[in-house]
């Protein structure tokens, strides 16, 4: 990695700052191991920003993120702000930052750590070797299409519209192809082309873009079949690319293969290399302030940052291997522990992973 990377750090609310603090230890250790230097800067975001600045996404936070190479985010939200009007809700900040940074894809890996197979509801032999990524389109489809209600002779009728244009499909498919190229080079495109016109355009576009990636093997799977195959043969998937609503559902399904929300990292990417990295879980108000949250999802999000925004595979692998080593040695936070009395806290888990990081 040649130039100094600038990382914006948004701790957010609840356990957000607790898990982000452990990820920062990992950033420091990377600097030591590789002789690099990160420029890190913290900013207010979410509920804490509402309290101090009167808005979930203050202008200076947005400016910092725009000038950064990557954004590391904890989580936002909590009961304190649940009844606020829309513009004073933490989630409004999340939607705002994604839009302002032009982030149109959400990337969620689901990796089975051998020693955690007991945490899943599926049989260990089905899960064996599972290591997949769901790439979900974030800005189009039925969630964003025109929606309204009208009166009919059968009572009220509600209408949601699903729309996709070629450009929206092209950019996400290209990105998924790039991700696949850095992995096992297998792309599964998921649609409902037997019924939906948007899916037929999706499939045509995928075929056209994939032609530029002859080294990536392509398959098309209908969404209902994909939902089944994820449970039947999860290890056969590498990269799954799909539209917004299908991706919302399939990424949650894939996440649960691993059995634990405290382990799951995510990335949101746009056209350039700037990405936003965060754990899949929320602010967990029920355990905030107790020092028991699992920091692994956030630490693995740093590994994703190295790989996807900094194109720095080696440093990402160092983190992933360290996490694996610590888990193999039997260390667990409470959420993944069978014997909760032996569980380690947030900070201890962070320290153990940092100690296990070697080149
Ligand atoms: P949550 O993910 O915060 O918590 C769900 C359950 O998982 C809780 O029992 C929690 O204690 C546990 N959990 C979550 N992360 C954990 C970790 N790292 N270690 C150990 N246990 C963990 O989801 P919930 O309760 O639905 O939402 C809480 C708040 O978070 C809400 O205000 C919600 O809006 C917000 N939220 C924010 C997200 C974000 O910032 N991207 C995403 C999801 C929810
Ligand atoms: Mg969801």
Automatic annotation (TrEMBL):
Binding, substrate = 98, 108, 136, 224
Q: Where in the cell is it found?
A: Cytoplasm
- Cofactor binding remark: Binds 1 Mg(2+) or Mn(2+) ion per subunit.
User: Which residues make up the binding site for Mg(2+)?
Assistant: 224, 248, 252
Q: Which GO terms describe its molecular function?
A: 3-isopropylmalate dehydrogenase activity
Required co-factor(s) are:
Mn(2+); Mg(2+)
| Keywords linked to the UniProt accession | Amino-acid biosynthesis, Branched-chain amino acid biosynthesis, Cytoplasm, Leucine biosynthesis, Magnesium, Manganese, Metal-binding, NAD, Oxidoreductase
Q: Tell me the NCBIfam families matching this sequence.
A: leuB (TIGR00169)
Q: What is this protein called?
A: 3-isopropylmalate dehydrogenase
Source organism of this protein record? Effusibacillus consociatus
